[in-house]
Amino acid sequence: MIFQLIGYALLLLIAIIISIDIIPLFKDWLSRIHIGRYDNQQIWNKSITKLGLKWLHATPKIKVTDHTRLVFIDMLKGNYTKAAIQHWQEAALLLGMSEYLKQNDDSDVKHQLSKFMAQKFNDQGQWKHTPKYVDGAIFAYAVMKLDFIDIDKYKPALDAVWEMIRGHIGQDGTVQYRSFMKEYRYVDTIGFICPFLVAYGLRYHKDECVELAVKQITTYEDKGMLQGHHIPSHAYAVAEKLPLGLYGWGRGLGWYAIGLIDAWGEMPSDHVHKSRLTESVKRFAEAAVLFQQDQGNWNWTVTRGECRPDSSTTATLGWFMLNASQIDGISELCLNSANRAAAYLMKVTRRSGAVDFSQGDTKDIGVYSTLFNILPFTQGFCIRMMNFNHGYKVVKR
């Protein structure tokens, strides 16, 4: 009887391992058959948007580790995924859908987004689960971009995000990635907080928020950029003023890009800091385009042609370039770059509409994921890019 029970337990363990480890790998293999068959922009846009809306209600969990075996152990230890990672996945999907609604008066999508909002906020406009980390600020920014809702209803939640950010300000006057990492500044933080700070600051007449966003960007430009090439390091040490991690980490460029371009886009043309950020956009656009590969992608390490392409880098930089194309002097350069990025992303889209081959979550400064798979963050920025301009055309290459 005991041996029989042990046998059943072993069979159960094997079944768990198969279901958690092997089946997802098989599904990835199966879903990549006939990948990249989209050759029509409108059909592709419809497909990625439909899946993006579906994912907003059931966002795929992004793993903390790169383990593909005995994954259930990570689950038991609570190391499978983290809420902070999911914040920027949901935020990007929400940003994508808000851009879609600017071009489409879709009552069903509005209804679905209202249901999603009800999961996140109570009737008083406060969070049901208040974000603890700066990652949550990009989600708050995405909420502010929903034109069909009364954003002032959610002011208590937005105020809470501002207070959380204030609690992360270090002695140098810039925002920490985590309050227990006081000595470092991460490029990720620019993407997380700067668009929110500008949008929130302008709407509610809080000049200190806008000033903080500009300081976060310009300080990083002074201390965290590679001289002569103007691409960011992963982080820098505040006291020593030393770069940390990799210069040219693809998604690091993406975080800087979206933080800069969305902050720039939120500012009216007559704002005191508009011209300063316009110069930053020009400088970074001219730097980043040099590392775009022939197929239209950027690699996960943009400075090495041998590295794997990264869809998350390509989608975020594509969004940056498309917005930057509004600036005289770099318009043609940036629009061509955005066209090439979109054409590449079509080639790595599964039949289901899922954009594939995004680098997984980063483990630490200088410790990068070796997994490349779907990422809702990438999906959201593809939707944003394809709905930004109704007359936008993908140039096939």
From TrEMBL:
Q: Which Gene3D superfamilies match?
A: 1.50.10.10
Q: Where are the transmembrane segments?
A: 6-26
UniProt keywords, alphabetically = Hydrolase, Membrane, Transmembrane, Transmembrane helix
Supply the SUPFAM superfamilies for this chain.
Answer: Six-hairpin glycosidases
One Pfam family per UniProt:
Glyco_hydro_88
What biological-process terms (Gene Ontology) are attached? carbohydrate metabolic process
The parts of the chain that form a coiled coil are none
A GO term, aspect molecular function: hydrolase activity
This protein is called what? Glycosyl hydrolase
